[in-house]
Amino acid sequence: MSRSPEETLELTADVLVIGGGLAATWAASAARRAGASVILVDKGHCGTSGVTATAGPGHWWVPPDPAELRETTIRNRLKSGFGLNDPEWMARVLALTWESLPTLEGFYDFSTDENGVKQYRALRGPEYMRALRKLVDSLGVTVLDHSPALELLQRADGSVSGARGIRRQAGGHWQVNAGAVVMATGGTSFLSRLLGSHTNTGDGYLMAAEAGAELSGMEFTTYYTVAPVRSTMTRSMSYAFATYYDEDGAVIPMPPGPDTTRPLARAMLKGHVFCDLARTPEDIRGRVPTISPNFMLPFRRWGIDPYKDRFEVTLHGEGTIRGIGGLRIVGEDCVTSVPGLYAAGDTATRELVAGAISGGGNINSAWAVSSGQWAGRGAARFAAENPAASGARPIGQAGLRPATVPSDVDLGAARSAIQGEMLPYDKNIFRSGHALKRSAETLDAAWAEFDARARGVGDALLRTRETAAMLATARWCVASALARDESRGMHQREDRPQTDPRFDRRILVGGLDKVWTRSDYGRALELAS
Amino acid sequence: MIELVIAERCTGCNACVEVCPTNVLELVAGDVPRIARQADCQTCFMCELYCRGDAIYVAPDCESPTVVDRDAILTSGLLGEFRRDHGWDEWATDPRYTNEHWRMESVFLRARDMAISEAVAKRRDGN
Ligand SMILES: Cc1cc2nc3c(=O)[nH]c(=O)nc-3n(C[C@H](O)[C@H](O)[C@H](O)COP(=O)(O)OP(=O)(O)OC[C@H]3O[C@@H](n4cnc5c(N)ncnc54)[C@H](O)[C@@H]3O)c2cc1C
Ligand code: SF4
Ligand code: SF4
């Protein structure tokens, strides 16, 4: 640590981008190209942090000609999204994603297929994020690595004008006075051991909510991904050929199609579940290491041959990552309900495009690419009218400025409480009103205590603030799941198995001391039939 | 979790300190980086990928530390395997390690077609 802990690096820029993943880098590039000066801060390292860097997103990728292709795609997704998505947003995302990926030529080494056709749709994670880092560096974005944001700065008129945080490696604090801010801190899986997700603790949701932002779709947080037990390897491609067995070695029947979570979770609630990949065709086995080089690492290191041996599997919760909820978007430029604050990627709700089912596999990454650029441009425009200035107020509360006298809180216990409500299959996959109410009580009590007393200092500062963020996020998820008193898409209530037309609308949520929910009547939603 | 930084392979470039998303490693002046916060390791293997010296070993267990035999790991062929399969650095021109990630979609389609034909065969066999 080269600096004293009290020292603050104070910087000024038109646009501050918080986060360093897929959405943040696209946002920073767009703001810069719009002529703004840009600072990007990442909790970890921009280029390896976030869930893109460890995976390999296939984007929503539909050619513009013939026009029927996109029309059909949108019509089908409206149906599968249970009417919570919006055809105009879908069309915008398809168009911008299609234009954007080829612009990475020169930064990403796109492969060609047997016929010499360039393949733009799916990019390998580490190479993709390395390319985006090179892109933002080449455009003159100032990047602060290992510099997590802790709180936003707010002008007297309520608009957001920068942030403060810490420099984990250099030491001391940073403060960026900005014209506008893009929040791109990803989703959160509540530290479930989902691959690459451990810098994503929902900080952006909490920071934004403290400025008055609303969230939407937080009930759609029941996505889980299979992985070998004790491993983070949630790469799912090879599990398309999986056979699952119960403790007695009997095959667990799976419905046709990709939705294996519910039967697997049901089996796991009864006992250990095992798996082999013996159905994988020979030629594909040979290609797995050059398609997803990380997939085989745990097996090779454990001496398991997954094509022959049975290994135990688990399901890692994804929270809002391949769930759907996030900050509510109120304009085409991805502005939140707070002026000067823009949201992109998994920090924003993806209902607009994905609807009530996961956007993993195609929509999420296309949304990060598109919403990032809209947010970056929107922030640049806002900053042109509202220049950066010092003197704004830092507004962080829970974990930073306790409501009463600070005293020690047990961070480990708080985390266990959060995970204990948000990850268990019986509470979160098979939901019921009764259990959700109990979860709400547990989390409210934990919040009241945390908000009143927790103040992170020294090495525990970031951890304390992250815990506050996950706690707030968990409360919004549970409140929204209670408010959606029906089953729809990934949100399945055992006590309300039907989809109810009264809920053909999005559910908004927010509030810190007291959590509120309300239906989004802002836009009439027609349930696709 | 990360288990080893092998001194005789480490060039002291400190790339691992910089790229680790969860700040597990710490720079040590004049020495190899120190695994300072192992409990924070998110088992993402990024440090291995960026280590040109192939000096890092990350054990797949993400829940608790693994007891590893350093000498066995050194001769296991596992060090540097990830960077090689990615075709990075000196492997960039080796045709065995080209980036075939774009084939992922076709793999999913193969699985779907297999499932359909298996279901058809099952119905034909009358069960
Ligand atoms: C295993 C897996 C496979 C996937 N595959 C696909 C796919 O095939 N297709 C698809 O469409 N989608 C896929 N997704 C989803 C897709 O990866 C995400 O939608 C996308 O990465 C979102 O980008 P993001 O920038 O919002 O978040 P991330 O890429 O996760 O980035 C978030 C960033 O914010 C930083 N951050 C967090 N808190 C702070 C803070 N307080 N201060 C500063 N920085 C902070 C983090 O360090 C990180 O760099 C997959 C997800 C997973 C987990
Ligand atoms: S990246 Fe590898 S060679 Fe460089 S300092 Fe780390 S361990 Fe040593
Ligand atoms: S595996 Fe990932 S989290 Fe662990 S030390 Fe390496 S880079 Fe850091």
UniProtKB/TrEMBL annotation, chain A:
Presence of the UniProt keyword Flavoprotein in the record: yes
Domain FAD-dependent oxidoreductase 2 FAD-binding: 14-223
GO MF annotations, alphabetized: oxidoreductase activity
UniProt cross-references to Pfam families, sorted A to Z: FAD_binding_2, Succ_DH_flav_C
Keyword Flavoprotein belongs to the record: yes
Cofactor(s), by name: FAD
Ranges of residues in domain Fumarate reductase/succinate dehydrogenase flavoprotein-like C-terminal: 428-500
Keywords per UniProt: Flavoprotein, Oxidoreductase
Superkingdom as given in the UniProt entry: Bacteria
Protein name: Oxidoreductase
Organism whose genome encodes this protein: Mesorhizobium kowhaii
UniProtKB/TrEMBL annotation, chain B:
Keyword entries, A-Z: 4Fe-4S, Iron, Iron-sulfur, Metal-binding
InterPro entries the record matches: 4Fe4S_Fe-S-bd, 4Fe4S_Fe_S_CS, Fe-S_Ferredoxin
UniProt GO MF annotations: 4 iron, 4 sulfur cluster binding; metal ion binding
Residue ranges constituting the 4Fe-4S ferredoxin-type domain according to the UniProt record: 1-30
SUPFAM superfamilies linked to this entry: 4Fe-4S ferredoxins
Keyword Transferase: no
Matches recorded under PANTHER family: ADENYLYLSULFATE REDUCTASE, BETA SUBUNIT, BLR5484 PROTEIN
Protein name from the UniProt record: Ferredoxin
Upper lineage: Bacteria, Pseudomonadati, Pseudomonadota, Alphaproteobacteria, Hyphomicrobiales
